[in-house]
Amino acid sequence: MARNCHNDLKMKFSVDEEFPDLSLHNNHMAKALTKDIYGKLRGKSTPSGYTLDDVIQTGVDNPGHPFIMTVGCVAGDEESYEVFKDLLDPVISDRHGGYKPTDKHKTDLNFENLKGGDDLDPNYVLSSRVRTGRSIKGFTLPPHNSRGERRAIQKLSIEALASLEGEFKGKYYPLDGMTDAEQEQLIADHFLFDKPVSPLLTCAGMARDWPDARGIWHNDNKTFLVWVNEEDHLRVISMQLGGNMKEVFRRFCVGLQKIEEIF
What we know:
Layout: H1 5-10, H2 15-18, H3 28-32, H4 35-41, H5 52-61, H6 80-83, H7 85-95, E1 127-134, H8 147-161, E2 170-174, H9 180-188, H10 199-202, E3 215-219, E4 224-228, E5 234-241, H11 245-262
Antiparallel strand pairs: 1-5, 2-3, 3-4, 4-5
């Protein structure tokens, strides 16, 4: 297990001395975190060195809005969900209407099972989009990525996506290496994503080293995109103008399967 010297320093103080003031907070973390839970978990860390205070810091720094309940915590790696389950399980349950650790998300990515959706009313539908996020096993999550790890994710993504063929053949554009013309075109296509400015994200470490090792890949038809190292390792998007959601979903399912196979 990785040693966190800053966490060792905090352990010199009592739970009462280190427990954050959450009296004015309105987020799921503040609702779930008690001194007992804090005392039980504050000395623990994941194998990559992620601690309880890392998990809750964004929720401590951002009390929330009286009418908007935010989450208030982040996971730094896959192991966070086990090491800090005494906090994260109730947060997830509260946020997702009673979702239990034993529950399984129901997924059907067989596009042939989708009935209709190929002729949504053009008077109301300008474009259609389906998207998801994917994390690559073996890497920490974006709030905890080091520069080298983030660059390794980008390198792996570039190599993997370059192997796609047919309707998925495309090109990768690094945010810190594209030409002015490429940047202007990506803006015109509404593909370019910006540096996070929300305190919820910046306090979670999501904007560190920006734009290092972030980028956009899209197919030649500009209907299938992958954002690399934005808020997820990979953000996979299928989109096109018009109301043919069935075609968008077909491309999404086929493309996502190909990506999961090559990764």
